[in-house]
Amino acid sequence: MADKTSRSIRYADLNAGDNAETRRLIDAGNRLADEVARLFPSQPDIADRHYWLEAMINHVPDYIYAKDTEGRFLIANEVTVADNGLESLQDLVGKTDFDLHPHEFAQAVAGTERRVLETGEPIFGIEERAIVTKGRDRWLMTSKVPLRSKSGKIIGIVGISRDITDRKSAERLLEGQARLLEMIAKGKPLTEFFNELVLLIEALLPGIKGSILLLSEDGRHLLHGAAPSLDRAYSAAVHALEIGPNAGSCGTAAWRGEQVIVSDVYADPLWADYALLLKSSGLRSCWSTPILSRERKVLGTFALYAHEVATPCEQEQELIAMAAHLAGIAIERKRAEDRISFLAHHDALTGLPNRVLFEEQVDGMLEEIRERDQCAVLAFLDLDNFKLINDSLGHAAGDELLKAVAGRMRASVRKADFVVRVGGDEFIILLNGLPKERDIVLSRLEDIRSAIAMPLQLQGRSLQVSCSMGVACFPNQGRTAGELLANADMAMYRAKELGRDNIQVFTEEMAARAHERLQWQEELREALAGEEFLLHFQPQMNLGTGRIFAAEALLRWNHPVRGIISPSVFIPLAEETGLIVPIGDWALRAACRQLKAWQDAGLPPLIISVNVSARQFRERNWASRVAEILKETGLEARYLELELTESLIMQDVPGAIATMHALEAIGVHLAIDDFGTGYSSLSALKRFPVRRLKIDRSFVTDIPLDADDMAITSAIISLAQKLGLRVIAEGVESEAQVEFLQKAGCDEIQGYFFSRPLSAEAFESLLSSARP
Fold first, then answer.
1. How many domains does the chain have?
2. Rounded CA gap, 757 and 771, in Å?
3. Residues 131-140: contacts with CB within 8 Å, 24+ apart?
4. What is the pLDDT of residues 195-251, one digit of tens each?
5. Which residues contact 152 (CB under 8 A, 6 or more apart)?
6. Same domain, 378 and 284
7. In this structure, are strands 426-434 and 418-423 parallel, antiparallel, or unpaired?
8. HSE (CB half, 13 Å, CA atoms) of 56?
9. Is 636 found in the same domain as 538?
10. What positions does the domain PAC occupy (predicted)?
11. Nearest Cα to 747, choosing from 705, 710, 693, 711?
């Protein structure tokens, strides 16, 4: 540092310069200093003050300078002089930015300064790119104020510029992080996200090049993710790189699950087989960091390459860690989204597309087929007796069966075809671009059906499962996915009606039948709302006394147009649609109410017998609903008998027994209807809390002509007596049948021999006439 004398001489020299404005500025400063010295004689002299002022501004790291109205430098601190490439202030004074820097940069600076000179208004805190870069992109925060003479005239500008490159880098990093997180939140494609991430790091670390590689599904290879600045040939060469203990920086980092820093790829044995790939690029060092999941599993690698032999500094390590962390978040988020999307569009059990994906894609597929003037076949299939397998072997076995069937269907179709699991044991197969010959189409479907029916091992046993398949052809039997599916569904139900294990192709007759079925269903709903149902009552007679002891309530539908409709016509439809539950409740309530009315009228006491459907019996808390109906109608429980079929009970024996005991606790009597046609075992029968067995009419009809029927009937009667149960035979129509049943020990009969079903009024008349 020069002494005070030399400093004064420099200012003296400056005073002697040719610039008049400069001389005036210095003179004004000297006069101010002399006045301060006169007023405060104890203060340092002007030379000291000049020295302190110069020392102070030279120790400030910011640029401090003054210029005249023509943009010529008047004074500047040492850092300003040095960064402009000059050795001393004398080299700078009198020069302009146009003398020192490229024209476009100098023009931008001059424009700002001109605004200050013309308006007299200072400019504070403007951010501008530094003209002097020092080998890297730099930013300055600049303030410029007008320099005024003692009279207030603007004679130049004073400027201060601070290097804010680090702050700008931090801001850029924060903005980049926010932008990247937004991309993750919006589900942007991974390639787009990776490129943005690498470019952000490269912008913060000039001269550095980045790369992202992803670990393959098999966990053995690294696949290209992003490398926007690396040589494409190099990126292509390392694509599908096999990871291992000596597989360069990235392959080794993925293998170890930890960072691998190679300062010189030409000297490190990890790069022995890969260094030549970098030769043309001029890159010398590679620092690779594994991208990890939350469970610390390797997802890929993030690598930085430098042209010099180097290792990462602290700032670079922080950026690497941040980039690898963000990349991990993006990969996991994308995988979670893919998983959610897959589950939304695929069946979780079989992995097949589900109906959602089918509906999204099928119309486009059909349009392509239409343009090629080809046909497609949609098959709707249902596994036969799947419920029996599921119930007998358990749900786990049922799931294994469904997966095996799904695999067989996939293996039986081409990649262009579509196999869909609709739900349960129902599937859709769409065969694309088929020839229009019917025989070829049916042959393909038969092959699929045969593949499904092949034996398979399930829980140590060999099983076979068949399917019922309905078929609709595009475009003749449906021009949209909805039409095809509806028509194939109709054909599938026709296949089931014909005994299952067959293929049915949709016909117009099926459509007409389905339309009629739909109309019946709607009319059935209207019948329930409009109270079109009524009950007929068929007497049940005690063979020993010849008296009526009970009546079976039989449901009828009094259609406003069709007249009285038999239950054999509408009950199956009611069962299928679930309407049997409210209809059955109505029948039970009406029967109890009618019997209570007869009792109140003083007619002989009797039992009312009401049939129970499987859907009713499986209803939750059904016994409680029966109790509510009895309470509502005022009928004592001992006068009500509920008839349950064998097949109904055997669907769920433990559940059935629990419900039966609940009904027994109320006081209701139970009977097994159609006995002998189901598959109940004697061990199950003895557990049922029932009072009567009802022999099915199919065994009575051919008596006394059929010796087998007579033998079966006699056996049922004998069995019931040994179990302490009463027996009633239905469908009795002749004297010979009555005589046989009496000899066999049957207790009661029901049938046309005694009486047809009667209206409530006719039955009441019959009861009145039968009074003793």
1. 4
2. 19
3. 131/97, 131/101, 131/102, 131/105, 131/106, 132/83, 132/84, 132/85, 134/83, 136/165, 136/206, 137/165, 137/206, 138/163, 138/165, 139/163, 139/164, 139/165, 139/167, 139/168, 140/63, 140/164
4. 999 999 998 888 899 999 999 999 999 999 999 999 888 999 899 999 999 999 999
5. none
6. no
7. antiparallel
8. 6
9. yes
10. 124-176
11. 693
Which pLDDT score is estimated for 3?
39
The 3-state DSSP class for residue 156 equals: strand
Domain membership of residue 511 (yes or no) is: no
Considering the domain architecture, whether residues 492 and 428 belong to the same structural domain is answered as yes
* Whether pTM exceeds 0.90: no
Cβ contact 452:409 at 8 Å? yes
Contact in structure between 253 and 259 (CB atoms under 8 Å) = yes
Question: Coil, strand or helix: which one is 134?
Answer: coil
Phi and psi at 128, nearest 5°, equal: -145, 150
**pLDDT tens digits along 19-48:** 554 455 455 445 545 554 555 555 556 566
> Is residue 542 domain-shared with residue 456, that is, in the same domain?
no
Q: Which two tokens stand for residue 746?
A: 């049957």
Q: Which amino acid is at 173?
A: L
d(CA 64, CA 55): 13
Looking at the structure, tell me whether residues 489 and 569 fall in a common domain.
no
- Extract the tokens encoding 434: 């088929």
Q: How many CB atoms lie within 10 A of CB 680?
A: 17
Same domain, residue pair 68 and 44? yes
List the structure tokens of 198: 């690498």
